[in-house]
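Second attempt. The first submission of Probable phosphoketolase had a stray character pasted in from the spreadsheet, which I only caught after the job came back as garbage. Lesson logged: always re-copy from the clean sequence file. Corrected sequence (799 aa) follows.
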Amino acid sequence: MKPPAPNTMTDIIVSPLSDDELNRMNAYWRACNYLAAGMIYLLDNPLLLTPLKPEHIKNRLLGHWGTSPGLSFVYIHINRLINKYDLNAIFLAGPGHGAPGVLAPVYLEGTYSEIYANKSEDDQGLLQFFKEFSFPGGIGSHCTPETPGSIHEGGELGYSISHAYGAAFDNPDLLVAVVVGDGEAETGPLATSWHANKFLNPIRDGAVLPILHLNGYKISNPTVLSRISHEELEQLFQGYGYTPYFVEGSDPDTMHQQMAGVLEQCVLEIRRFQDEARRTGLPTRPRWPMIVLRSPKGWTGPKEVDGHKVEGFWRSHQVPLSGVKENPAHLKMLEDWLRSYKPEELFDSNGRLIAQLKMLAPKGTRRMSANPHANGGLLRKALRLPDFRDYALALESPGKVSAENTRPLGKFLRDIMSENNSNFRVFGPDENASNKLDDIYKASKKTWLASYLPEDADGSELSPDGRVMEMLSEHTLEGWLEGYLLTGRHGFFSTYEAFVHIIDSMFNQHAKWLAMSKKVPWRASVSSLNLLITSTVWRQDHNGFTHQDPGFLDVVVNKSPSVTRIYLPPDVNCLLSVANHCLKSTDYINVIVCDKQKHLQYLDMDAAIKHCTKGIGIWEWASNDAGFEPDLVMASAGDIPTKEALAATVLLRENFPQLKIRFINVVDLYKLVPSTGHPHGLSDRDFDSLFTLDKPIIFNFHGYPWLIHRLAYRRHNHDNLHVRGYKEKGSINTPLELAIQNETDRFSLAIDAINRLPSLLVSGAHVKQKLRDQQIECRNYAYEYGIDRPEDDHWQWPY
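This time the job returned cleanly.
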């Protein structure tokens, strides 16, 4: 089906504002700009009731003025249409450090004072409001979790559009207005996220209105999109599938009229698209509108300082006037600048915004700063979860049966989607089928509103009504998921371990957002971000060295222990138990590492639930030290490392029957951290009981070995902890050969154990030689036949 034809600029009302409306809109904007500048500079004298003095100025001038006037300009124009059309809207500020331009209208519409009583709508509240901005113990210069109405901090460089679309999915009445900074627009994540319009269903989803704010400069350089021609810029966004509208200039009266007309046209156009699709039931892909706002950087600020251009140039990016406490000329320029907004006309004698301006703001939850979608936990409903035990793999004994670990999880997710068809989505970069989660397509196909070819009917699983989100951009998917979660819904994201590093920065930002939100009492809990890492390092023997990197876990443990969780389930039933737990949780980032290929299965469901609940435990069936102090502790974390550690245990027991070995498996990686360092950490007594005080520990780990040392370095027996993991060695190997190269294979582990046990150091020489011979045979076999020896590849627990 052909998309509806775009409307032309001739449809726009040229002067939609009456003289009175124009004057009041401009006055309200002046108030916003006064507050924005005041936040950056003023420590006292908030309404300039006396001449400005050096002692009224903050000692450190922090903040960014350049983008702020444009942000508040957009904000108040959206407010106008919220009032006129009763819009349900939220506002995302993409430009970095743009908080002054958002905090100002948030304060003026009253929400800030309702939440923070000491920031009352009077001169004393305004003084406190100014002081706490970019001040020790106060708030930062981004739209942080402390900012009412924010789900996006800004300064994240490239995620605003994807966050906006994530918020709009399954919110049919919501309009998400998102301002994109022109510096931000140069990033790869942002450039790709424009394609999200191919995934927005006008029947069941809300709408996103992107506003590209071209003020021309980054910190000290021009921006690319501001220096290409109007024609090229228009064609760029037409190529992305949008209908671009332009608001350009610097004169406030003209710009207010332009913005009022264009924004209203865009809102009405969005409504027409939605009404048509909902009336006909045909979810076609419209050419959604977007706006290019070209205004001066540092608009309405100082035009020139010390002979240098400031307004409309990069020098207005941060603090246009510095050294005002020491430089009387700059202090005078600052006072003239602030007084140019005529605060005496905007605020009454008590410091409150005058009534005729106050009425311009929406009321109650129609205020974008008070919209519950921007505090998504208020709207969140718990998932309806089927019983995960119904998907269990039946086992008669451990280590005898192989199965694909993620296949039953796909069935579990399939039924979750069926039971939660308006608040749960699965995200993955073109890999859900590869990750053996393709049963989800029986509940819902992949969202797709671009064109179709006849052959798509044969297995492509595409549908405009689909709820599985697939796009080959981890950035966009992560942004969608974050926006979806932060507005009160649930999701699940799977990706290849080799490529999860693409979202390192996004993970960092979301983890910090969650950690900060926990300290903001009015923020309601949101669903956890659940991330399955599969196609792991130990099964990237076919893709080679470039696809072998388990280091995302190292990134995760850098973040606050209040928000991060890491699980390494060794088999199907443990994976199901962990996934069920994670999907119920709130305010965490749950990282689950589990490979998709066939692996040995160890625990029946009852045993798996107990093991995962503890997070760490002795596998009695794999140990022979009951009633004795062990000679050796063999430990593992991860599916493939567990198999090799078990095989090493068997080699040792077969060759040294008298040896007492305790086998420990770790599912919850944070159990290794002392209880003082992480909520899941074991007490020292429990750790010592498991790992002993002085016996050798051979720990076979999924990731880089030093991570285990980092987590457990304070433990009593750390000196005897010997970790084997990935050591940056690999190529096009067979699975066992890859393990041998990194010394995580059964033979290397058994040899290491012999070397660590004084009683075997000499007597074990013959066995060590035999094990090394077997390693050589394995490698030679792989080089000749291209596969591992069947007796090694299909090894089973023999007891």
